[in-house]
Amino acid sequence: MRSLDELQRAILLDNYRIESSEALDLLHEAQTDELARVADAIRLHFCGTRIDTCSIMNARCGRCSEDCKWCAQSAWHAAQVDTYPLTSVDEALRHARDNHDKGVGRFSLVTSGRRLTDEEVDRCAEIYRAIGEACPGFREGRLCASMGLLDREQLHRLKEAGVGTYHCNIESAPSYFPSLCTTHTVDQKRQTLRWASEVGLRLCSGGIIGMGESAEQRVEMAFALRELGVGSIPINVLNPIPGTPLEHMPPLEADDILRTFALFRIINPQAHIRFAGGRTLLDRDTQQRALRGGANAAIVGDLLTTIGSRIADDREMFAHCGFLW
Question: What is the DSSP string of 146-167?
């Protein structure tokens, strides 16, 4: 087995891609601070010091046909959540302009449900064109979409409307996903991501940790994302929502979270490893340690059905950790 420092040199100097067996050895044997040190060096080498920020708008909420155990928007669960149809152009523009004026780097519409209809995709394309005209900072591929299991033609229409990145979380390790959702499969998610790549969209896909999966399965998820060529990996920490099957799930220890961020960076050296939902459940020290241990991106502002973060507070924290906005 190579030492951690030897692996770091191979990754930095030779673009070495760590093997699954090596990652599992690190998981079981390396100290958290050492993993974070190496992950931070890899992040600095490949990604530099600029934080990649994005904000998401819940553009259609609730009444989802899928039975994902973590989600408040599923019609299968008893969670209390607002429900509303697809947003209007004016409402989307209001959110986009607000985030644009605060200097957020990317903006995404997120819709509940298995997928959109062709008519709904056309309505979203109209929204994206309007945002591109009104918000110059979101042009040139800095608009994103998260709209379920779209087909290749629908994804192409979003690309033509100015979308640069498509998001579809694989949510967990492929071996664990069937215990979390029965109404669709990881293979269907993979197909959507492959189609998105084929039409020229960048890929954003990650998952949620703390849903009962093992630490080894978190490593499995990191490799599944690498295999797909994902460039942006949001890592959510489960926020147990009352009325969902995971409402009583115990929280992860801070050490588990920090080791996850570090290993995801070591396995995916050039990706944006993105702090996503659940970040505000963590104390400021843990957030800062993650930013010094592999993370280089974050979703900022409100986050779908959970409370997000104040953008001004985030800017201060990112600067404190050595990042440029």
Answer: E-BS--HHHHHHHHHTTEEEEE
Dihedral over Cα of 85, 90, 92, 94: its sign: negative
Q: Decide if pLDDT at 306 tops 50.
A: no
Reported as a single tens digit per residue, the pLDDT across 259-269 is 999 999 999 99
Residue 29 tokens read as: 């044997």
Instruction: Indicate the pTM of the whole model.
Output: 0.96
The crossing angle, in degrees rounded to 10, of helices 215-228 and 186-198 is 30
How far apart CA 118 and CA 103 sit, in angstroms, is 32
- What is the number of residues in the chain? 325
Q: How far apart are CA 145 and CA 102, in angstroms?
A: 20
Is 82 exposed, middle or buried, given 0-12, 13-18 or 19+ CB atoms closer than 10 A? exposed
Residue 200 tokens read as: 């020229």
Do strands 52-60 and 297-299 pair parallel, antiparallel, or not at all (unpaired)? Answer: parallel
Token code pair at residue 265:
């960076």
Strands 106-111 and 52-60: parallel
